[in-house]
Amino acid sequence: MNTETIVCKQIKKSFQAGDKTIEVLHSIDLIAHEKEMIMLMGPSGSGKTTLISIIGGLLNADSGECTVLGENINQLPEEVKTTFRGMNVGFLFQHLMLIPTLTALENAVIPLLCLGKNRKESLEKAAHFLEKVGLGDKLQKKPSQLSGGEQQRVALVRSFVHGPKIILCDEPTSFLDLERGKKIMDILKDAEETNATIIVVTHDPRILDYADRIVRIEDGMIVHGS
Amino acid sequence: MYTIALKMLTEDKAKFIGMILSLSFSTIIIIQQMATFMGTMRRTYSTISDTPQAEIWVMNPSVKMIDDINPIRSIDLWRVRSIEGVQWAMPFYLGKIRAKLLNGQFQLCNLYGIDSATFVGAPHTMIEGRVEDLRKPFSIIVNQIGAEEMLAQDMGPDKPKRPLSVGDTLELNDRRATVVGICEVTRTFLSQPVIYTTFERAQYYSPFERKQLSFIMAHAADGVSAKEVCKRIDSITHLKAYTKEEFENKTVFYYLTKTGLPINFGIAVLLGILIGVAITGQIFFNFTSDNLQYYSLFNAMGASHFTLAKITLLQGVWVAFLGWGIGAGLASFLGFATRNTQLAFYMPWALFLGSGILIFTTCVVFSLISINRIFKIQLGTMFK
């Protein structure tokens, strides 16, 4: 078995909705390893997104311990956590969040620039990855000039261009047809080969074959695959 | 990162142009209103500023400003000349007089009487004729604006007016006056024509008064400051002496405190500033709000709050620089294009500096407000 990269123990999280407190995660335990792709499945509102937000350091758990690459991410000071996140975590958001005024290349290079890397080298690196995913001729195109699948690939490159150890994806194939969805998953699978741990939140049964493990969450509890 | 930030700003062309235009517009309003106000104030003391030879102005202590004339005795000229530190002192007549035009109409004019021997106080720029021609009988010099506008001769219906020119005659208080020169001086506050003649002839033209010495213009001797000479004149003659700058300021102060000008203009200037600042702030604030999700993206991807603050400030400063630059350029062009018209437009460098500080401060303040919002971003909502 490969090294453990994510160790979540007894994670609890609740949100305030008016006077009500809604408990979203009930004592979640999850362990993930290097070179592992986990598919996180479950009905809407079951806590999948909240869980990856905690793992990614975007959200703090109310209690429990979430250790990512040996660091208890909830305990890190905000600025340290930001740097840690920038260096070690890649994000692929469901709504992509490509900046419409920037080109594909500029969108893809953002994580490197956020880390203060050399601009020229960063652009070369991002261009290399975009070429690898078949967008070599679309580097200077803006998101509005790209198809849905191409936009997805730009966002995907942005999630791993800086070589993160953890990649968190939210519904990466939900808006794509089977062929394009498979292409995206192939790229992700390649990224996994670089020792990354990939957690994919999905409702899409077409891509389950790519998973090393499937974890099912219902009502804030892992019911299968922890 | 900063290139990306600037691209985010400039590539959204509609918003970017909107921001730049609003800032330019604000800058133009601020500079135009202030320049007009300052230009108008400057005209209130044009008589003083057009007489650069006079370092010191001596007058009746009751005088409140240049047009508030309360003549002093002729002998006071000799008393001033006798004071140690006064290099020279010359008489100056300043009054209003009605000029009768060829068509029988009257026009109120400013009449300046200067020393006939030295011509101290004479106009510094002659367009036609020579100052020395004032030695000819009944001679006067008229300012260009007066000659071309209010003193121009009516040539009949549908025909353009003929400007007053050298050789033409006027009637001043029923006495003949011949134009021997046309000069260029600053337009007066009321835009009335300015007529120069000798001190003696000015007394001849003007209605009789027991005392006719309006002011004494003086100059300090080498090695003595004008201020020191003013003090000596005050204490020895019991007249009031001001340096040129003091008298200009006293005149402006009078208009600022005794007329409604500052309130009326001030409201326009204040509104200009407020509208400009509000438009700028609103647009910049909207821009940041629209990009809030992308700032959170940067933060999620490792950009610290400090980096985000620098990005926002850079965007604010860049917008301010371009907007202010274009606005200041257009305002300057406006000032240049209207330099010889009735518009009072005075743009000292301090006005550019002041408007620049105001625009930059506005953008920086709104950047800081935006930064505060960026710092409060909830990253937990990013996957939603």
Strand order across the largest sheet of chain B: 2-3-8-5-7-6
Biggest interface between protein chains, with counts per chain?
A-B, 33 and 24 residues
Distance between the termini of chain B: 26 Å
- What structural class results from the helix and strand content of chain B? alpha+beta
* Quaternary structure: heterodimer
The helix/strand class of chain A is alpha/beta
Structure description:
The complex is a heterodimer of chains A (226) and B (384). By secondary structure, chain A is of the alpha/beta class. In chain A, 32% of the residues lie in helices and 29% in strands. Chain A has a single domain (36-59, 76-224), classed as Rossmann fold (3-Layer(aba) Sandwich). In chain A, helix 3 crosses helix 4 (119-132), helix 3 (104-114) runs parallel beside helix 5 and helix 5 runs parallel beside helix 6. Chain A is globular and about 50 Å long. Chain B is 50% helix and 17% strand. In chain B, strands 2-3-8-5-7-6 form a 6-stranded mixed β-barrel. Chains A and B meet through helix 1, helix 2 and helix 3 of A and helix 1 and helix 10 of B.
Summarize the helices and strands and which ones pair or pack.
The complex is a heterodimer of chains A (226) and B (384).
Chain A: E1 4-17, E2 20-33, E3 37-41, H1 48-55, E4 63-68, E5 71-72, H2 78-88, E6 89-92, H3 104-114, H4 119-132, H5 148-160, E7 166-170, H6 178-192, E8 197-201, E9 213-218, E10 221-224
Parallel strand pairs in A: 3-8, 3-9, 6-7, 7-8
Antiparallel strand pairs in A: 1-2, 1-4, 4-5, 9-10
Helix pairs in contact in A: 3-4, 3-5, 5-6
Chain B: H1 2-11, H2 13-44, H3 46-49, E1 56-59, H4 75-81, E2 86-100, E3 106-114, E4 125-128, E5 139-143, H5 144-148, E6 169-172, E7 175-184, E8 194-198, H6 199-205, E9 215-220, H7 226-237, E10 240-243, H8 244-258, H9 261-290, H10 292-300, H11 305-337, H12 349-375
Parallel strand pairs in B: 3-8, 5-7
Antiparallel strand pairs in B: 1-9, 1-10, 2-3, 2-6, 2-9, 4-7, 5-8, 6-7
Helix pairs in contact in B: 1-11, 2-9, 2-11, 2-12, 9-12, 11-12
